[in-house]
């Protein structure tokens, strides 16, 4: 497999965690979203992913984009360890939390949106994340065990950790979100989350390396 990734991309990080948890080795091709006006806009990368976004994963003779589509494919083809619970209700909760982050928070504060916000970009990002986290904190109070849904690491957790990292980068006050903070802390102690962390990628700038 070949993963096209950017060290700081939260969408790429989700996929890196899934690959690490499932023990899938891969080659990483960095796509710098800032350099050269954004390497994702090159003709070469556009041919790979017409949406001109990371991640993209070449695997089993196909190229997939969109992090949840990739994670779902890995889940269906390499089911151990599982990232979706067997119980249909818990499985629905995992998907709900993942969608909440992937559709309801992350796109509103990603690079392409922030570029258009000018001087207000930090305030905009903080507001988008805070309103999403207020809802998420409430949801997790009903679903969480050790992790987002019960005591098994799931696709929801793969979405949570990168989003908390974004929140910290934009200096969002995490005080009102004790459940999110607790789960994030526990997850960051797991090896798959450590090795896939933005501070430990081949394309991480020296000053940001762990």
UniProtKB/TrEMBL annotation:
SUPFAM superfamilies: GST C-terminal domain-like (SSF47616), Thioredoxin-like (SSF52833). Gene3D superfamilies: 1.20.1050.10, Glutaredoxin. Transmembrane segments: none annotated. Its cofactor is glutathione. GO terms for molecular function: glutathione transferase activity; maleylacetoacetate isomerase activity. Its main location: cytoplasm. Residues 1-82 form the GST N-terminal domain. Pathway: Amino-acid degradation; L-phenylalanine degradation; acetoacetate and fumarate from L-phenylalanine: step 5/6. It is found in: Cytoplasm. One of its GO terms (cellular component) is mitochondrion. GO terms for biological process: glutathione metabolic process; L-phenylalanine catabolic process; L-tyrosine catabolic process. Residues 87-206 form the GST C-terminal domain. Keywords: Cytoplasm, Isomerase, Phenylalanine catabolism, Transferase, Tyrosine catabolism. It catalyses: RX + glutathione = an S-substituted glutathione + a halide anion + H(+); 4-maleylacetoacetate = 4-fumarylacetoacetate. Its EC number is 2.5.1.18, 5.2.1.2. It comes from the Eukaryota. Belongs to the GST superfamily. Zeta family. This is Maleylacetoacetate isomerase. It comes from Chaetops frenatus (Rufous rock-jumper). The gene is Gstz1.
């Amino acid at each position: 497999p070949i993963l096209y990734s950017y060290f700081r991309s939260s969408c790429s990080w989700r996929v890196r965690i899934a690959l690490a948890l499932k023990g899938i080795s891969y080659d990483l091709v960095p796509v710098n979203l800032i350099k050269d006006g954004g390497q994702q806009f090159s003709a070469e990368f556009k041919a790979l992913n017409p949406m001109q976004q990371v991640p993209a994963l070449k695997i089993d003779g196909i190229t997939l984009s969109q992090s949840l589509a990739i994670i779902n494919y890995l889940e269906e083809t390499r089911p151990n360890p599982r990232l979706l619970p067997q119980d249909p209700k818990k499985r629905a909760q995992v998907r709900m939390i993942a969608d909440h982050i992937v559709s309801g928070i992350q796109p509103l504060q990603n690079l392409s949106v922030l570029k258009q916000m000018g001087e207000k970009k930090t305030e905009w990002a903080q507001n988008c994340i805070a309103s999403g986290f207020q809802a998420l904190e409430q949801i997790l109070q009903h679903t969480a065990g050790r992790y987002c849904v019960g005591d098994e690491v799931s696709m929801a957790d793969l979405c949570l950790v990168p989003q908390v990292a974004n929140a910290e980068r934009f200096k969002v006050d995490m005080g009102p979100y004790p459940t999110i903070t607790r789960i994030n802390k526990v997850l960051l102690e797991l090896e798959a989350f450590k090795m896939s962390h933005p501070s430990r990628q081949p394309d991480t700038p020296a000053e940001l390396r762990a």
